[in-house]
Amino acid sequence: MNPRLRRAAGIAAAAVILVLLGWRLWPRSETTTAAAPPAAAPDGSVQLAPSQVQGLGIALAPVRRADSVPVTGLPAQTEAPLEASQQVASPWAGTVSALLVHEGEQVRAGQPVLRLRSPEALRAGAELARAGSEADVASRQARRDAQLLAEGIIPAARSEQSQAQARAAQAELARARDALGGARVRLAEGGEVELLAPIPGKVLRRMVRPGDALQAQEPALLIADPARLDIGFAVAAGLRAQLAPGLRVALADGSAARVAAIGADLDPASQQVPVRARFEDPAGHVPGERFAVTLLLPAPADALAIPAQALLPDGERHVAYARDGDRFRAVRITRVLGNDGVHAVVQAPTLRPGMDVVTRGTAALKALLPTPAAVSASAPAQ
Q: Where is the CzcB-like barrel-sandwich hybrid domain (predicted)?
């Protein structure tokens, strides 16, 4: 080996030996003091250092004052508002010869939507033509008699009589026109009549097909304004006093509605209060959808909101673990008002806004701090 390399290797080996020898001879304590495990205090709390909180995997979230109480899982259905929807019906019985629009089609007011063969409608049309002809004849006669009266050829009584007949004929013509116009129909070729759209909107539902017999006043189509949509649902009778227009209704997709109307009595079948809410923005929704909604009722003054995972069952009641300074304790929940899976709204006299509750690591705290129900169960019988 090269003498220079041998010299360098010897120096390195000597240095390692000196380090090992110094470590071996350095004075040090033979024993270490183990950290004392946390223990519950007589007041039912336990003190945990930050390192212990971290070691136990404890996570915390703040308590806040609740502004609403969720009533979840209410079955609901979207519906066209009554004031923004109308049915298309014929005042006469007949047979549907043609449907002029499709479901989902946008229509304008007065647009023909259905063609009908109806003997009654034909008679009404004939009555209108007769009344128009008679009114025209009576009007011409009244003008002629007025001219003859001015020339002194006929007496005034005859002119007055023809004027009265003309007025009567015009009244009959107006009645015949109303019979057709008021029904939102018009005469078509081939002895048929066309039913007209009563309002602008979208064809939501078709109840008939070509060839079907249609009874008088039987609905054939439903037309509604697509920009307006309601949600119908029902709530328990015990909540009737808390209902009010304007309350928020939340959907799972993030859209919302406001309560617009509340039933004056209970539904006989379900014994619940019917409620109707109006969408704030119905985009993405159509009539006939079924889903569950959450009604947000006003919260009592002492109601608090905590994360749902902080709420723990404790026998027939619930508890939460709260932190006050560096101490943790089990807090009894006196009443759970609502729970939407994200937040629980509760009443608990010993909790206050701004305190922290435990959302993770509760199993470790249960081992250190038994809940009130666990303490009662382990106490000896008297």
A: 86-225
Measured CA to CA, the distance from residue 36 to residue 235 in angstroms comes to 55
Contact 112, 99 (CB under 8 A): no
Q: What does 229-271 look like in DSSP terms, one character per residue?
A: -EEEEEEEGGGGGG--TT-EEEETTS-EEEEEEE-SS--TTT-
Tell me the one-letter amino acid at 171.
A
Residue 243 · residue 259 · CB < 8 Å: yes
What's the whole-model pTM score?
Answer: 0.67
CA 139 to chain centre: 60
Residue 103 CB neighbours (<10 A): 12
pLDDT in tens, 307-356: 999 999 988 899 999 998 889 999 999 999 999 999 999 999 999 999 99
CB atoms within 10 A of CB 266: 14
CA pair distance 183, 92, nearest whole angstrom: 9
What sections of 56-155 are H helices per DSSP?
Answer: 119-150
For 96-145, the pLDDT digits (tens) are 999 999 998 999 999 999 999 887 776 766 676 787 888 888 888 888 88
Radius of gyration of the chain (CA): 43
Q: What backbone torsions phi and psi does residue 95 show, to the nearest 5 degrees?
A: -120, 130
Domains belonging to the chain, first-starting first, are 45-67+302-373 (2.40.420.20), 71-81+228-293 (2.40.30.170), 83-224 (2.40.50.100)
The candidate with the shortest Cα–Cα distance to 105, out of 90, 88, 91, 89, is 88
Four-point Cα dihedral 260, 265, 267, 270, nearest 10: 100
